[in-house]
Amino acid sequence: MKCVVGHRIQKRIHFVGSFGVGKTTAMASVSDIPVAKMDVHSHEALSLDDSEKTTTTVGFDYGEWHMKDEVVGLYGLPGQVRFDAVWDKLLPESTGVVMWLYGDRPDHLDQCAYWLDVLAKRNVLKSLVVAVTRLDTDKAEPTLDALRALVKPYHPYAPVMTADPRNKMSVIQAVAVAASTPYIGRPEEPTTITN
Amino acid sequence: MKTFRVHSPHRTSLHVIALKGLLMLRKGEQWSWVSDQIDSDVWVLDAVKASPEALTDLVQSYESCLHKPLVVYLTDGKLTSPHSAWLSIRAPVHVTKLFQLLDRGLVDRARGETATSATAIAGSQTLEHQLVFDRTLLESRAIKLKQWPNVTRYGYELKYVQACAFLLQEHRQYETLEQLDLTSEELECLLRDAHDQGFLDAQPPLNQSIKINPMPSNVIPFKSGKSRLSSIEPIGFFRKIMQRFALS
User: Fold this and answer.
1) What is the dihedral of CA B90, A110, B152, A168, to 10 degrees?
2) ipTM score of the complex?
3) Helix, strand, coil proportions of chain B in percent (round to 5)?
4) Number of CB pairs, chain A paired with chain B, less than 8 A apart
5) What secondary structure letter does DSSP report for A59?
6) What percent of chain A has pLDDT over 70?
7) Do A182 and B168 touch (CB under 8 A)?
């Protein structure tokens, strides 16, 4: 019998974003194992009037990718600030971060700024992608341009894309962008779209 | 605070209104809309809204101006500019591209170079300032992406992620891009879109300040399949994702 002590997780992909944005759905789309959920019924869910969501993640969701020679851990972090202890524990060990944003909500820029700050404080901007949901790809550029301007002071290549958490290949593509983004460091001076 | 007087005969055009909104984002500048053609610094024209007769009149008015305004000609991509000095920009405009062209156009105009824009910019050695994408101008140049494009617009295939990551890392000789897993049409589409968005940096090869990186000599270009995908300087984890999912 082979004795295994500890775990084989060498790399960790973290899905972050506001409450109800689709992190758990994204994980379920790509995980090789059934996603271990730590959801409870939530009154906040009732405020999402365009969603059937009735639960929220209080610990973290966990899934796995089984690669040829290693297991990649997929972690869905709770979206509410009261669980920031979970962020502190998990984010510093991140291999890549997928930030999920609603593209059709008026506060998407505020949400993006908020999460950029969360990630910057934990020094995990290196392998970042901002995945924007609920946007028609053909008409997304004005929204993406505004987000790129926001992300650029934090990440010089502003990896911002549209994505669908329900679509396996879309989620994989988002993770691939995070994993492949060359990072030359955060610009010393924030750059803007103006002179 | 610099003040610019803008004139448009198509002020109800949605493209012109959108462009007006973008101009308001520029810091240190004030853009006022004026009805007087002659007394304006910038004209904004909507090619779709303008009748041929009106365009002829506008060209004549432009020619008669002592101090030539900077003319932004918003086109649908099919209609060509009736004047070589006018800046043709495909609507809806991309903010980065618009600001790059405006910056250059306004600087040149301030210098008194009345025939700025299209003619002058088209003569530039840097493709970044070309108004119309021309793939042949990329040949022998060092190319780099300045930002991630929205790769989803090409579908969910990872080969576009791979190509963009390769072009983001450093300047690459155009010829090396043939070894990416994109067809020439796919590559041209990617580069054209990046150019139109202002994401493409193309430098002449003789510019010694730019480090040009050809494909590593130990990399053998493959014809197809996974081996070819893995030949393009993969980044460790990304390579594993490609191996696992690229052909699934």
Assistant:
1) -160
2) 0.83
3) 40, 15, 45
4) 107
5) S
6) 79
7) yes
Give A85-142 pLDDT, tens digit per residue.
Answer: 888 988 998 999 999 999 988 889 999 999 999 999 999 998 999 999 998 887 888 8
Nearest CB among A163, A170, A182 relative to B165 is that of A182
From CA A179, how far away is CA B167, in angstroms rounded?
15
The alpha carbon of residue B168 is apart from the nearest alpha carbon of chain A, in Å, by: 7
Confidence at residue B111, expressed as pLDDT on a 0 to 100 scale: 57
Chain A residues with CB under 8 Å of B242 CB are 176
Task: Provide the strand spans (E) within A28-180.
Answer: 39-41, 55-57, 61-66, 71-76, 96-102, 128-133, 160-162
Structure tokens at B24: 């308001």
Residues of B in contact with A170 (CB under 8 A): 152, 156
Q: Hey, what amino acid is at B190?
A: L
pLDDT of residue B114 exceeding 60, the answer is no
Look up residue B176 and give its two tokens.
Answer: 């090396």
- The reply to whether residue A173 touches residue B237, judged by beta carbons under 8 angstroms, is no
Are B168 and A181 an interchain contact pair (Cβ–Cβ within 8 Å)?
yes
Q: What 8-state DSSP symbol labels residue A164?
A: -
Residue B169 touches partner A, C-beta closer than 8 Å = yes
Is some CB atom of chain A closer than 8 A to the CB atom of B238? yes
Instruction: Tell whether B5 is within 8 A of chain A (Cβ).
Output: no
DSSP B12-61: T-HHHHHHHHHHTTSTTEEEEE-S-STT-SEEEEETTT--HHHHHHHHHH
